[in-house]
Amino acid sequence: MDGFESNGFTEDRCIKSGGDSVVEQICSFRNHLVKGGLQNYPLYIKTVPTENELKFHYTVHTSLDVVEEKISAVGKALVDQRELYLGLLYPTEDYKVYGYVTNTKVKFVIVVDSSNIALRDNEIRSMFRKLHNSYTDVMCNPFYNPGDLIQSKVFDNMVSGMMVQVC
Amino acid sequence: MSGDCVVGLVLSEQEEKRFSDLFSLTLTDADTTGRVAVGAKVGELFRASQLPADTLHQIMNLCGAKQLGYFGRSQFYIALKLIAAAQASLPVQLESINCELPLPQFPALKIDNEIQKGNLSQSAEIHGQVGRTISLVSSSRGIETMAGKVVSVQIYENSKCVHLLPDVIKKKGQLAGYVTELVLKQWAFAHEGSPTAGSIVYPSGQTHGNYISKPSLPHSIYTLKQPTDPEIQEDPSDDTDDPWRITEEQREYYFNQFKTLQPDMKSLISGSVAKDLFTKSKLPIRELSHIWELSDVDCDGALTLFEFCAAFHLVVARKNGYSLPATLPETLMPEYLQRSEAFPQLTHEVVLLGSHGNSAVESLAGQQQWMNWNHSEENVIAESVPTKLSASTLQQPERHFHNEKADLIRNTNARFKQVAAECQTREDTFFLPKAGCKELDCSQKRKTRPRSYSSTSAEDAIKKAEVPPTPPPRLPKTHSRASSLDLNKLFQQGNQAVKSGLTQPPPAVPPRPPTVKITPFPNKAETSNVIAEQLEKVQQPNFADFSKFSEQANKESLTDLSSRVKRPSNLGEENSSPTKDVKSRQPPIKPLRRKHQPESQGDSQEQLPRLNSTSAPDAKPHQPLQRMPSKHKKAIQTAVRKNKEVHMILVRLNGELQQQFKEVRKERIALESQLEQLRPVSQT
């Protein structure tokens, strides 16, 4: 888990799922170097093709920081599923980042382009719920070791379905 | 259909027929116009020609299909011509199609396979005839008012054609093939007199893979059949359901495996247990993970009996080379398996029908029509077809055979669809065989025979899966290097041997006195410091006292030494020993001795005078002096001995310290040189 460097999927669409973080959307790549101690590395990434991949990489990093901050801030009720709405991080960029953390500290991050008609909160929540369910299904697989890249086709398909819906 | 004009392309009669035949193959049944070929089937056909992919792309581009976006008849024909050209080693260009070309061959295509294997002559004539036949048939599919009479007569007359039918049909699906085979065999059997009947060697390869369960056959026909499975290696993707069907033996095996893992057949096998088992199969984790995903339908992290069967079956199939499906085949679904367990054999065939469902039915229908016409024997149809149809419908074909082929077509079509639909809903047997039990027996036998192959392969695969359990522990314990054999032995003998071996080298190392004696070093340093201090202290007063007591030194030194020796003090000894050393070697230290001596002399002198104060001052000092020498000789001698010992010790100590000093100096030099090396670097 230390020094873990994973490589993105070659397809253009990427949802990033990290080590707990899942960033879905328009990001593409995902290369997340784990430094000792901070084990936030991506388990899965999927993005929709766009030019500025690196930008989304930065976004993801910053969003992870914010997520961490929020987790640590809320001392109580850690068990509750929460949703993290970050709003516009960069005024110029016009996209929104949504976060979600499970009780096992797995983080899902969805990056949505604001040019899309703003998705409602409920929709985002349902997306996260679906992600979480799929993730639990992946975990049920005894051949999946927690911390591995998620290579489940079922998960992939679900995410692709969601991406299509979003876009 | 033969009337369709192909723009700009001149085809010979054979070619035209052949091409029509092939074109018809690529049509879907839903397409009544017969104009557009299904892209996927076209692709499949082209790939069957075993030309390289670039060539195929070239051909596709040239024939104009890309421009049009679909494969019309003319495009298709052009493409076929180009394929023929390519196979004839001619350049793939439009010009080459104007040459006289042989017919394009599609070795990988089942039809051609069989034809080439040829029970029968492969003359173009036959091809043409078949083509004509089939093309007529295909067109008749769309145009149901075909003059069936003409067709049937043609076919009927040409008995040779008939034998090709199973091959043709086979492409559409085994189901069709089976039925065809049945029908044809019946027909052949019935027509024993016909010259060609005797030469029938039916392509037995219709059994795709070992997992096919054949429909029931009349017993008599069964004996004609030579069941061999030369085409087990056919691309399973053509009939994906086949390898995914679990035979009885396999099922039993899986059940037994389940029992060994989990005695209660109704409960679950946990994920970790299953993982261990399947890991033994040596499949990559990625594939095992995929298999799990497919088979754990309820996603609970554990496998029910049927999920386990499916998973095991997938593992076996994968080991046998079949690629894993993207979704779980219907025949591996737990519900299906549950049902099939309840109705072991019958559901196989029933679902065979059902699973092949619409595509097979529809494709079959087309092929079946003329097939049905072929037989003048009503019995034939009655006996063979009823495996799929109810008895009542049998009469219909017979009637229609003589009258309206179109109606027959429709009926068989409809009936078949009905049958298929019913099969899907009902599980109980659909067989209304006249041969009743016989057919069941036949079906069982049919199943056993192919299953025997399957079981061997499955057993092999399973054995493969079972064999691995033992090896894994091997690897970690062996050394990776050959040269480590000795080490192996060593390790086997035990650590002690190794330790003893290891302990040997260290002794070679220790001649580093400083490391060993580093700890004592400070002590010795301290002692040496102490000694030095003492020496220094002694030295200073020496110079002062030297002059005074130089005369009495010799005599009184002895007494002093003795008195010194008598006083048990390390300090004294240490002082005396260095003094002794000094005296023997180095002049500057001599005064020490003398200093001590004078001191002791002084002391003794003070004492003596005090003692002898009462007596005469001159005489008394002499007397004690005279006494002293005799007593003190021995004392002095022992002192000398002791001092010598101490001397030896100190000599050794000195040597060691000298060595340490040298080494430290060396280190210092090395560090200094390093520093110098680094300095210019850092400065620049």
TrEMBL record, chain A:
Its main location: cytoplasm. This is Trafficking protein particle complex subunit 2-like protein. It is found in: Cytoplasm, Perinuclear region. It holds the Pfam family Sedlin_N. PANTHER family: TRAFFICKING PROTEIN PARTICLE COMPLEX SUBUNIT 2. One of its GO terms (cellular component) is perinuclear region of cytoplasm. GO terms for biological process: endoplasmic reticulum to Golgi vesicle-mediated transport. CDD domains: TRAPPC2L. Keywords: ER-Golgi transport, Transport. Belongs to the TRAPP small subunits family. Sedlin subfamily.
TrEMBL record, chain B:
GO terms for biological process: endocytosis; endosomal transport. Keywords: Calcium. Residues 443-481, 498-522, 554-635 are annotated as: Disordered. Residues 283-318 form the EF-hand domain. Residues 599-616 have a biased composition (Polar residues). Residues 15-112, 250-335 form the EH domain. PROSITE patterns: EF_HAND_1, EF_HAND_2, EH. One of its GO terms (cellular component) is cytoplasm. Pfam families: EH. InterPro entries: EF-hand-dom_pair, EF_Hand_1_Ca_BS, EF_hand_dom, EH_dom. This is RalBP1-associated Eps domain-containing protein 2. It comes from Chiloscyllium punctatum. The lineage of its organism: Eukaryota, Metazoa, Chordata, Craniata, Vertebrata.
